[in-house]
């Protein structure tokens, strides 16, 4: 199990290699990328800012919770900070487990908890030249509501 806040581009293949074991029958990779539109506005890029010590603690806690709840230590999470262009990966989560259902559930748990708990803020940049801070929990809250 490993978590990290990084300023370099993410390497999904390296994350998959970290969780690979012959005991695992399922390996999942979630990659969150900068998309071209949000809330009807055209986006050109995003700046991610983090409160490092707290983010490290929360990411570690989330991974430990997922490991315990879904019975796997094969979890690697990286969240990128800095300025990202369209299509660049901002977060990558690799989870491996003997069973696919648990791998899916663990991956989903990790991303939803990141959105709720990890102090990472994003400022979107728009085609009209403006920039605006975006509530990182908005998507997580929408998903969890019935």
What characteristics describe this protein?
five-stranded antiparallel beta sheet; Aldehyde Oxidoreductase, domain 3; 9 strands; 146 residues; elongated; alpha+beta; 36% helix; four-stranded mixed beta sheet; disordered C terminus
What does this structure look like?
Helices cover 36% and strands 38% of the residues. With 146 residues, it is of the alpha+beta class. It has one domain (2-132): Alpha-Beta Complex (Aldehyde Oxidoreductase, domain 3). Strands 3, 4, 6, 8 and 9 form a five-stranded antiparallel beta sheet that branches. A four-stranded mixed beta sheet has the order 1-5-7-2, sandwiched between helices. β8 (120-126) and β9 (131-134) form a beta hairpin. α2 runs antiparallel to α3 and α3 crosses α4 (138-144). The protein is elongated. Residues 140-146 have low confidence and may be disordered.
């Amino acid at each position: 199990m490993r978590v990290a806040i990084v300023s370099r581009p993410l390497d999904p293949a390296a994350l998959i290699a970290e969780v690979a074991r012959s005991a695992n029958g399922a390996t999942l990779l979630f990659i969150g990328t900068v998309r071209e539109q949000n809330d009807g506005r055209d986006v050109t890029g995003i700046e991610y800012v983090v409160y490092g010590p707290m983010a490290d603690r929360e990411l570690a806690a989330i991974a430990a919770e997922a490991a315990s709840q879904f019975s796997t230590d094969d979890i690697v999470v990286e969240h990128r900070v800095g300025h990202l262009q369209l299509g660049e990966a901002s977060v990558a989560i690799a989870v491996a487990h003997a069973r696919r259902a648990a791998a899916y559930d663990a991956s989903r748990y990790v991303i939803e908890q990141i959105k709720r708990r990890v102090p990472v803020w994003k400022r979107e940049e728009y085609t009209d030249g403006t920039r605006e801070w975006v509530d990182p929990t908005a998507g997580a809250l929408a998903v969890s509501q019935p």
